[in-house]
Every structure is written in structure tokens, then in C-alpha cells.
Specification:
Blueprint (H helix, E strand, L loop, with lengths): L7 E5 L4 H12 L4 E6 L2 H11 L2 E4 L5 H15 L4 E4 L14 H29 L3 E8 L10 H21 L4 E8 L5 H11 L5 H8 L8 H12 L10 E4 L10
Parallel strand pairs: 1-2, 1-4, 2-3, 4-5, 5-6, 6-7
Helix pairs in contact: 1-8, 3-4, 4-5
Protein name: Product
Pfam family, one: adh_short_C2
InterPro entries: KR_dom, NAD(P)-bd_dom_sf, Sc_DH/Rdtase_CS, SDR_fam
Length: about 260
């Protein structure tokens, strides 16, 4: 029996990159009631067909659309027991050049939308009286972040606090909330970012991995396995955890 044969899941950002890897892992573990969400309908519908899942187009910057994903899944399958908030934007901006509009956009998509998706999951689960679990995809940038990731780092730090606060508030309802601080990850989205913002060429990944302590960047499939575990009964009472998933250790100094 798979870990997720009884799971009814919503994965935001589920049509590409880490979100897609998570959706694929849940499907491998038996989840047949799976809704993936994203902004690109063509890409999302193709991913959903390959997975045997349902796609819903949503802008996570709109709280109503974020919460509506839970309602749509519940309308189809009666309830929702698992949520993964993987959708995010990582456009560059620093303390010196970030505009109010860019700040608001990143905070809306990366923190506000996930908050209201989680809120709706919790409201429905509490009303129906069943357990549920949420995993928020965070970032090592939540600890500080590079200078060019000022609004992104702030939004992930905000979501880290949402994770802990919600875990505390919802524990007696048997709703678990955990987060994963992902390090530099090898995804198609990161490739596009490196080329757009940093003038990267075709061998940027090979050079980055050659310089990494473990000879690779974080791989989505590895994070997906942890997400599956955290959403499953195997993780027991684990809640409120913020897990650093990286090969650098926060607070370590050069020797």
C-alpha cells in the first residue's frame, strides 16, 4: 500500500520544477485525487494529463483564487487532506532598488496566497473533523538571503513564521504544518533565472555543481521524497518544523 492512497492533495506550482516533482512523488505513492495549480494553462494541463491529475489555473497573488483551490478539490472529492505551497516568484530586487510594487507582488504570491490556501484547508478540515497536513516550500534565503533577493527573502521569512504559528494554532485539530528551507536547486526555472538575471551560459550548472561541497545542487526529486513523508502518517506528530535542505550549514564560518 502506498503512503498516499487515502490522500486528497493540492499542490500549488505543481506544473513545473519542484512542484511537479512533488506531484509526481505523491502520484507514485498512490495519490489518485490530486489537483495541481499554476498560472500557465497549457503547461499545467499537459502535466495533469501525464499525472492523471486535475489542473486548476490560479494566481497565488489573489487570496480568493488561492483559497478557491481548496474549495475546487473539495468539490470534486469531498475533502482535502494535504496541501503543498510550492508556488513562488524569485525576481531580483535589493534594499536599494526594490519598488513598492515588486515588494507587494512577491509578498502576495510567496506569503499571502499560501496563508489563505492554508487557512481554507484548515477551515474545511476543522469543520469536517478530519486530520490534514501542509508543507510550505521555503528557502534558505529565509535566514538572510543574497542582497539581490530582498523581497523574496522577506516573503519566505514571513511564510516561515506562518508555518510555525499555524502549526501551533492547529495542533489540537490534528492539522500538521511543516516547512522546508530549500537551498540552491537544479530546476528549469532556475536555469531561466540564471540566464535572465545573471547572464549565465550553457555550462553554468556544471560549474556550479563542480564548486558545490557535494558535487550537485539540490535536486527536486530529493525534496519531493521529504514532502511526501511530511504529508504522510509516517511523520507522526511532527509539526512546526522548519527543515534546512541544503549542503551549507547556517551559522557555519569559513575555516
Amino acid at each position: 500500500m502506498g503512503l498516499h492512497e487515502d490522500t486528497v492533495a493540492v499542490v500549488t506550482g505543481g506544473s513545473q520544477g519542484l512542484g511537479l516533482a512533488i506531484a509526481e512523488e505523491l502520484r507514485r505513492e498512490g495519490c489518485t485525487r490530486l489537483l495541481i495549480a499554476g498560472r500557465d494553462r497549457t503547461k499545467g494541463e499537459a502535466a495533469a494529463r501525464a499525472l492523471g491529475a486535475v489542473f486548476a489555473r490560479a494566481d497565488m497573488g489573489d487570496p480568493a483564487q488561492a483559497a478557491g483551490l481548496i474549495d475546487e478539490a473539495a468539490r470534486r472529492w469531498g475533502r482535502v487532506t494535504a496541501l503543498v505551497n510550492a508556488a513562488a516568484v524569485t525576481d531580483r530586487a535589493s534594499i536599494l532598488d526594490c519598488s513598492p510594487a515588486e515588494w507587494d507582488r512577491q509578498m502576495a504570491i510567496n506569503a499571502r496566497g499560501p496563508f489563505f490556501a492554508l487557512q481554507r484547508l484548515a477551515q474545511r478540515a476543522v469543520e469536517a473533523g478530519h486530520p490534514a497536513a501542509c508543507v510550505n516550500i521555503l528557502s534558505m534565503a529565509a535566514h538572510c538571503g543574497q542582497s539581490f533577493l530582498a523581497p523574496y527573502s522577506a516573503s519566505k521569512a514571513a511564510l516561515a513564521n506562518v508555518t510555525k504559528n499555524a502549526a501551533n494554532a492547529l495542533a489540537r485539530h490534528r492539522i500538521r504544518v511543516n516547512g522546508i528551507n530549500c537551498g540552491w536547486m537544479d530546476t528549469p526555472g532556475e536555469d531561466a533565472i540564471q540566464r535572465r538575471w545573471h547572464g549565465a551560459d550553457d555550462d553554468w550548472l556544471a560549474r556550479a555543481e563542480a564548486a558545490a561541497p557535494m558535487g550537485m545542487l539540490v535536486k527536486p526529486v530529493h525534496v519531493a521524497g521529504l514532502v511526501s513523508y511530511l504529508l504522510s502518517d509516517r511523520s507522526g506528530v511532527m509539526t512546526g518544523a522548519l527543515i534546512d535542505f541544503d549542503q551549507t550549514v547556517t551559522g557555519a564560518s569559513p575555516e
